Amino acid sequence: MASAARRATPLSPSPSPEPQDGAGASAAAAAAAGASSDAQRPPSPPPDANERARRQLETATRAAVDALYQLAVCTADVHEGQEGLVGAKINSVVAALGNVSATGSSSELTAMVPDDVMGMIDQGRNPDAHTRTFISRLVADNQQMASMTMALDAYHDRLSESLSRAFPELAQPIAQMRDGEEGQTAAGT
């Protein structure tokens, strides 16, 4: 399948596919095939309360963005006698933002956003930087713990060898103790 050229549409920042000659029939056939395969799939489970609340918040946010867009269009072309229309659009934006606030404070939304991420968004910075920093810190901590564990294991082995040489009568119990610890480690306890 040839990739379609993409161009940005005037109302959307995302590119949309450019129609190609003869592609309409094959796209319709693909859509029909996709619809028949959808009929064979089992229905998806109903979304949980958190997912429903997230979708409601997303819908309210999209409505607020749409209201802001309508306000921008309205204010760009105000004619004499239509000043009241701008006020009505401002009121609809305020109402949409109030709806976002009310929907966002729902008790069903349990996914918490870290304060650091919210602060980055408020400052106009990319919140992905917080995630990268957090993951890097976790990787470094994990490497440090792995190194400490390996060092302690090596120390324990050397100590066991030294004790076995210094006290030959304890060699067997030390070996049994070490074998028992390895079994517990392998079992995840």
From TrEMBL:
This is Mediator of RNA polymerase II transcription subunit 10. Pfam families: Med10. The lineage of its organism: Eukaryota, Fungi, Dikarya, Basidiomycota, Ustilaginomycotina. Residues 1-56 are annotated as: Disordered. Belongs to the Mediator complex subunit 10 family. The gene is MED10. Residues 21-39 have a biased composition (Low complexity). GO terms for biological process: regulation of transcription by RNA polymerase II. Component of the Mediator complex. Keywords: Activator, Nucleus, Transcription, Transcription regulation.
